[in-house]
Amino acid sequence: MAEPGAAEAYEAARLAFELGAAVRELRLARGWSQAQLAAAADMTQSAVARFEAGGTTPTLPVLSRIANALDADLTVRVSPRTGAA
Description:
Largest sheet: none
Structural class: mainly alpha
Number of strands: 0
CATH architecture: Orthogonal Bundle
């Protein structure tokens, strides 16, 4: 993490992975395949697969389409870190 930008890149990768995992959990809870979610969200199956694997960071409009397809609410928030003033 000594390289410039390494911490930021790690954090971005962590967030992308967590977003993908959350969508995968919702998709599986509904018993859907990646292809079914892709069709409902007007995406390709490979785009869904990359997203669920944390390989891409989607835009807010894409996240909104995925949430709508899964009949889920999309909540974006910024909150203070623990101990921040």
